[in-house]
Amino acid sequence: MIEYGSDALGFTGLRVIEQPAREFWSGWHAGFGSTGLRVIEQPARSVYKGMKIEKGKSFRGMRIKRAVKGLSPKIFLATLLAMHGFFLTGTAGKVGTGFGEEIYFFCGAAVRVPMDEIIPNYEKESGNKVNVIYSGSGTLLAQMELSKRGDVYLCGSPDYVIIGEKKGLLIPGSEKIISYLVPAIIVPKGNPKNIRKLEDLGRPDVRVGMGNPEAVCLGLYGLEILDKNNLMEKVLPQVVVFAKSCEDTATLAVLNKVDAILGWDVFESWNPDRVRWIKINPAQIVRISYIPVAVPVFVRNRRLAEEFIDYVINNPESKKIWRKYGHIRDMKKAKKYAPRASVGGVYEIPSRYWDILKKAK
Q1: Would you call 166 exposed, middle or buried from its count of C-beta atoms within 10 A (0-12, 13-18, 19+)?
Q2: What b-and-e string marks burial along 240-259, b requiring 16 or more CB atoms within 10 Å of the CB?
Q3: 47-65 pLDDT, tens digit each
Q4: pTM of model > 0.90
Q5: 226/2 Cα distance (integer angstroms)
């Protein structure tokens, strides 16, 4: 064993022990704590073969075990300290765990608009690459299950986190809440069919759009509202499109393909000049949804995944972006639109849903 330390360096939190080789500097995980440099783990190149860096209690008296032949501990330490300028803290939404790594992000289309701004910010600050796939929440779970891949999963409602955990696709207890969503009626600008209430969606002259409840969380919430208010038989025959994602559902109103959609409150902030939010009677809203983000069981680097999640939720610029697009971060504010509604939970499609669709054909 080789031991090396220097009180004059003044850093804390570094310990080096064995590690298999990988590409040069690939996968560095480091950061500055309040007491200095903190290196968590480092896959090394062949020249560093036999080393591993992980979190330790003290830099003073740094220990290097199984040092590679031909690599002086002093040279290794000098290289490490020369690299420390690339890393920032991993707290309060700042970037610091990874450098030049890749994140596979399965993201619900309900948040594509804000995420299209947040992801580039994260990539720029971290040096990491985010490969994002946008789709319906159920579709994304199926894609993860088929590909056996995924570092972060974000969906439009907790229903799919529960489903994902039951299927063994998501790590139990890894869920965090980003914001809350309120079910809403969204109409094209001008509200040409003068829709004022939920019951108006059952009028024979109204074309309705909604998310496919078999694959899209928005569809589940819309169907549940119709079900609990005894409107399935009246409204479902008026549905001309069951969209495959939240984004596609919102687009139906923007392009005047329908007269109204069952959507989320945030859809108005996506296209404020082209659509209008018609508030549903609070007594008719059964559940308020929230946008959860969780870690799949296929995650390759959980620390990096959780750092990315923290950036999405807590980074100051990310918070501004969520607010800009109308996302409610406080449950009490969301409950103002539906005081008696529950938050989260699960809804299962009733069998009569398919019976109604068959009759409508």
Answers
A1: exposed
A2: ebbbbbbbbbbbbbbeeebb
A3: 233 334 333 333 333 333 3
A4: no
A5: 70
pLDDT one-digit tens code per residue, 108-154: 988 999 999 999 999 999 999 999 999 888 899 999 999 999 999 99
Q: Left if phi > 0, otherwise alpha if psi is -120 to 50, otherwise beta: which for 273? A: alpha
Q: Two tokens at 168?
A: 């063994």
Domains and CATH numbers, the chain: 2-86 (no CATH), 102-180+289-342 (3.40.190.10), 181-287+345-360 (3.40.190.10)
Which pair of structure tokens corresponds to residue 1? Answer: 């064993």
Q: Which long-range contacts (CB under 8 A, 24 or more apart) does 163-170 make?
A: 163/138, 164/294, 164/296, 167/141, 168/297, 169/141, 169/144, 169/145, 169/296, 169/297, 169/298, 170/294, 170/295, 170/296, 170/297
Residue 164 structure tokens: 């994902």
99 pLDDT band (50/70/90 cuts)?
A: low
Name 102's bridge partners: 129
What's the token pair of residue 143?
Answer: 């894609």
Q: What single-letter amino acid sits at 71?
A: L
Minimal CA–CA distance to 12: which of 55, 52, 73, 49? Answer: 55
H helix runs in 299-351, sequence order: 302-314, 316-324, 331-335
Residue of 89, 62, 54 whose CA lies nearest to 78: 62
